[in-house]
Design brief:
single chain, alpha/beta, UDP-N-acetylmuramoyl-L-alanine:D-glutamate ligase, 2,3-Dihydroxybiphenyl 1,2-Dioxygenase, domain 1, 2 domains, 6-stranded mixed beta sheet, 26% strand, elongated
Amino acid sequence: MAARILSIAGSDSGGGAGIQADIKTITALDGFAMTAVTAVTVQNTCDVSAIHMVPPDIVAAQIRAVIGDIGVDAIKIGMLGDAATMVAVADALAGVRVPIVLDPVMIASSGAALVDEEALWTLMERLVPMASVITPNLPELVALTETEVDDAADMLLAAQELLNAGPRAVLAKGGHLEGDRLTDWLVTRHDHRGFTDARIPTPHNHGSGCTLSAALACGLGQGLSLVEATSRARLFVRLALLNAPGLGQGIGPMGQFRVVNDATAPGPVLNQITVPATDHAASLGFYRALGLRLIVDSPQEGYARFEAGNGVTLSIHAGDGVAGGATIYLESLRLDAWVAELAAAGLVFEQLPRDEDWLWREARLRDPAGNRICLYAAGTARRFPPWRV
C-alpha cells in the first residue's frame, strides 16, 4: 500500500510551493498525497498579492476527515499563518502517532515576517513539541532561537538549542549562508550530521523548502530511517532544481514532475542500459535520429549517453561487449507515425509496425553495431498483461 501523506499547508496559485509542491513531490516519490488547505494565496513567480485564510474549524475538519477515513502514515505541516489555525491543527492532531515534519513557514522571501508574536509563541508551545523533525531555514532558525547565525558552526549550535523546545530532530537548512557549498545540519539529542553539497545556481528555486519537507515526510511515512529519509529528500530537491522548467518572470518553480528514475525509489530501478558500438559516430547519429537526447559525448572514449522521454538513459560504448547481442525497446504512443518519419529519413526497418500475439505492436530495425532495436506500443500490456503473475 502506498504511504498516505497528509500535507497541511497553504495553496499557491502559481503551483510552485505550498500544497501544489507537496502533491507533486509526494506523488513523484510514490506516496499518496492528501491535503488540508490552510490558506488560499494569490501569487505567481513575482510576488504574493493576497492571502485568504481558511477558517480554523474547516482546516481541522479537513484533517479529521482524511485521517478518520483513509488513515495517515506521515504528516507535513507548512504555512499556518495565525495562532488560531495553529491551535486548531494541534488539537486535530492530538493523539495522532505518526511522524510529523514541521516546516515553520515564518519568513517570506522578501524577509517580511509572516507570523506575529502571538503566532510564534503558539507555534513554539503547541506544534514544535509535536514535531518528529522541524526544518527551519536560517532566518526561521534565528527567529525561533533568538540567536545570531553567521556560519555553519553557528547554525549547528542554534539547531541544538532548538531541540530544547521539544522536537525529536532539527534539520537546519544552510541555503541562506554565503559560499559555493552549503551544509544542512540534522541534529537529534544523540547525534548530529552535516550534509554538504555544491550550491546549484538557479533562479528557479521557489518551493524548495516545501519540497524538502514533503519529501522528508514521505520517506518517513514509507519507513525510511531519519538519515535515509533526509538523504533522499535532499537528493530529490537537488534533482528538482536541476530539472526546473524555467517558467515565469521571477523566482520560478522547480521540476518535481521531472524527477524520474534517479535514486529516489527504495528498491531496484532499471534506468540505464549500455550497448556495445563499433562506430561511435554512426551510433551517435542513429540514436539521435531516433529522438533520444544526447547528454554526454566522449568520442575519445567511444562513449555517449542519451536520455529518453521518461528519464531512462541509454549509453553506447565502443568495444564494450559483443556488438549485435543486445535488444533495446523504445515505446511511443504514436508508433506508426514515428516509424513512417524514421523510414522517410532513411532508416531501414526489418519489420514495419504489426500487432503481435503478446498484445504489443512492434517495428524492428538494427543500429550500426547490429544491436536489435524494437520500437513498440504496449499500453497496459507491458506491465499488466492478462497473464501477469
